[in-house]
Amino acid sequence: MRVHHLDCGSLRTIAAVGEALPPARAVCHCLLIETDADGLVLVDSGFGGGDVARPGESLGEEFLAFAAPVLDAEQTAARQVARLGLDPADVRHIVLTHLHRDHTGGLPDFPHAEIHVHEEEYRAVTDPAAEHHTESVSRFMAAHRAHGPHLVPARTERGDTWFGIENVSRPDGLTADILLIPLPGHTPGHSGVAVRTGDRWLLHAGDAYFYHGEVEAEPPVSHSELDLIQASVQVDPELRLSSRDRLRALHHEHGDEVEIFCAHDPWEFRRSAG
Ligand SMILES: [Zn+2]
């Protein structure tokens, strides 16, 4: 098994807080996993070809003004897979942290892949009776689902734990060690995606936090600009903070076994991608 860290979408430039790190464009941190038995697996999908070709229609003018994405076709996951000498048609599974537009843009570029999400995230967009249904559907852009993606809810097996975290779920039909770790609050079924690499794990924490100081620093360092964005999109602030604190505990207790990173922190991306 081989893991590649891909930035599938540069966003607005952000500054670090309390550290001598150069300002950098926020990233859309995705993983491409070459598995032994399941073909290629993507974790999150960033922006795709349709977003680059028709940004206003695909992503919405409000998002474009606020997130300022660069939208370069060469950054799409499909192009990056091809540049690695691999076939985008071999991407059979995409595991998503959640169904927001900066994570789902690549879906139409892989129309035959199965799309795995936490069962609560699945329910939020498919069941009109689910809490937060309307906003969940409005943030999963029509352009990203017009092709009829095959969404598969990952079922939680009672008693499945990972480093003491309960109710983890396993994407259906995947044999590789890839797990969905519940980190709700940003969205109803927001999850991290844990990937075993030998005797260690990677944990893609999606948008459970936006700035590494929130998880690594003692006490947590928050980022006022990014905090405002989190506050404007999260569905449950208390749940979101308890998910973040779960990650802080994991980092402090098992940091030597688990490398945690989120979707948009450019400094974490540089550290992970090397
Ligand atoms: Zn995001």
List the helices and strands and how they pair.
Layout: E1 2-7, E2 13-14, E3 24-25, E4 29-34, E5 40-43, H1 49-53, H2 55-59, H3 61-67, H4 77-83, E6 91-95, H5 101-104, E7 114-118, H6 119-126, H7 133-139, H8 142-145, E8 150-154, E9 178-182, E10 191-197, E11 200-204, H9 213-216, H10 224-233, H11 237-254, E12 258-261, H12 266-273
Parallel strand pairs: 5-6, 6-7, 7-8, 11-12
Antiparallel strand pairs: 1-4, 2-3, 4-5, 9-10, 10-11
Helix pairs in contact: 6-7
Bound molecules: zinc ion.
Describe it.
This protein has a single domain (2-273), classed as Metallo-beta-lactamase, Chain A (4-Layer Sandwich), CATH 3.60.15. It is 32% helix and 20% strand. The protein has helices at residues 49-53, 55-59, 61-67, 77-83, 101-104, 119-126, 133-139, 142-145, 213-216, 224-233, 237-254, 266-273, and strands spanning 2-7, 13-14, 24-25, 29-34, 40-43, 91-95, 114-118, 150-154, 178-182, 191-197, 200-204, 258-261. The strands form three sheets. Strands 1-4-5-6-7-8 form a six-stranded mixed sheet. Strands 9-10-11-12 form a four-stranded mixed sheet, sandwiched between helices. It has a two-stranded antiparallel sheet with strand order 2-3. Zinc ion (ZN) is lined by residues 100, 102-103, 207, 263-264.
Strand content: 15-25%
Q: Calculate the terminal CA-CA distance, rounded to whole Å.
A: 18 Å
The order of strands across the largest sheet is 1-4-5-6-7-8
Measured on Cα atoms, how large is the radius of gyration? 17 Å
Which stretches are poorly predicted, pLDDT < 50 over at least 5 residues?
Answer: none
- Helix and strand pattern: EEEEEHHHHEHEHHHEEEEHHHEH
